[in-house]
Amino acid sequence: MIFEGEEDLLIVTQVVSGEKDLFRLLIKRHERAVYGMGMSFFHNAEDASDFTQEVFLKAYRFLSGFRGQSRFSTWLYKIAYNTAVNSIARKKDYQSLSENESPYDNNTPERKLLRGFVRDTITKAISELPERFRVCVDLFFFFDRSYQEIETITGYPVNTVKSHVFRAKKLLREKLKDLKLEVFNGL
Asked: 4-88 has which CATH code?
């Protein structure tokens, strides 16, 4: 059985060895996550799409530099993160992935209303976090990255990443403590 990271490494090896058309497999496997990161930073589909293309062009150009010391996805997300941060350095305009609409909200109107209320409340609480906390929370919870991978992606030391996630959860818990009461009291 081949695991995700091993399969990516095999594809990378083949692409670097001359089978360049196999790079499309890496795009197919990781395009959605890179696009999601683009939406977090740029807030619109056109810019996120351009960002995704730019990230994959950079990844292709520097693919021979991938050494397999981390998962390919971690290496790719580091390129994506650095590309995004460099693109918005002047704007300081990061928006949490949690602020994006879910395409899976197809329940009853009451459930949609409740979910919308909860999502809006959580989104507001996350948006009030310092940017460094929001980035770490997004990568940890929404992109399912480990602390070590977040360290690689952001450049924050792993203990700083842990601290940011811990502090963010603590701040969110405090901000959201009354949410449960509001939801159960019928909004």
From this structure: 1.10.1740.10
Give me the architecture of the 98-184 domain, per CATH: Orthogonal Bundle (1.10)
Global model pTM greater than 0.90: no
**Is residue 102 predicted with pLDDT exceeding 50?**
no
**Distance of alpha carbon 137 from its chain centroid, rounded?**
9
Report the C-alpha gap between 187 and 182 in whole angstroms.
Answer: 5
> Using CA atoms, how far apart are residues 151 and 20, in angstroms rounded to an integer?
30
| Boundaries of every domain in the chain | 4-88, 98-184
Collapsing DSSP states into helix, strand and coil, what is residue 19?
A: coil
Q: Which residues contact 1 (CB under 8 A, 6 or more apart)?
A: none
**34-62 residue pLDDT tens:** 998 888 888 888 889 999 999 999 999 99
Concatenated DSSP letters of 109-135: HHHHHHHHHHHHHHHHHHHTS-HHHHH
